[in-house]
Amino acid sequence: MTASAVLSGTDLAEEILDLKRHRRAILLAHHYQDAEIQELADFVGDSLELARKAKDAHGDVIAFCGVWFMAETAKLLNPSRVVIVPDKDASCSLVDGCPVEPIREYRRRNPDHTIVGYINTSIEVKAECDILCTSRNAVAVVNSIPADRTVLFLPDRNLGNYVQKETGRENMKIWQGSCIVHNTFPVRRLLDAKALYPDAVVVAHPECPLDVLRHSDFIGSTSAIIDYCAARPFGDYIVMTESGVQFSLERVAPAARFHYVANDNCNCSECPFMRLNTLEKLRDALIDLEPRVEISADLLARALPPLERMLAIR
Ligand code: 13P
Ligand code: SF4
User: Which of 58, 86, 228, 230 could crosslink 281 through cysteines, CB 3.0-4.6 Å?
Assistant: First the structure.
């Protein structure tokens, strides 16, 4: 199919829906995508939910509107599907801050340690891990490891500190990576927002620094935050995560008021990697079936077991 054949006489959203049908594609979107992308998606979720959806996806193509490591996870779990991402540069500061060589070296030096890798890692790093986790199941994953084993948790130091606090685990080393969005939410701005909305409930993603989490009423993954607000759909909320969650929050709790705290990095609360994906790029990706995720057979064989170990934990 040529681009011009697809483009004639339809608006962009309709073109994408037509292409989706033509390509037998499922459109998966993370909560941090622009609302116009989420509106077209077959499923919107957090990283764990998206991995499970990708695993069960039928059709020929998974159009993954999220960041690259999430699309790699989808390909790992459903390798016979073509997996595309609208923008190949949609990375993640946690991935970029955790190269594989030092992890291989750590493994060589500490063969008896258990390496727990956050899903926000490259496929090469995943292949060196014993088990993976997401923000939703990190506490359960670490609790599943025998108490006498030393754990290396990588790469997010804030999630690692949070998990260590929740599990009470002492023999746990933590890689010092961070998210450029959540790690730069300053507690000073949260306290200002609390002064402005004294009755507000603070909901936070565990990638936020511990001093922010200390002032939070609920801590959880993006979907866990949305579910929490859906169960109490009224009053004021201060939201300490990426503002893309607004799309679902307004849907599940239309009478509640949500206040977003800007970070010190962009003076906003948007992930610059996630926001690289646009409707235009999604349309082009469905036409070209590029940028496409490819994983070598060797990496697939080594990265899948730690991912499956995680999925076995409910
Ligand atoms: P979730 O697992 O909550 O979707 O988080 C992914 C992420 O990248 C948070 O910044
Ligand atoms: Fe990575 Fe942070 Fe963006 Fe999530 S919000 S994808 S952790 S940079």
Answer: 86
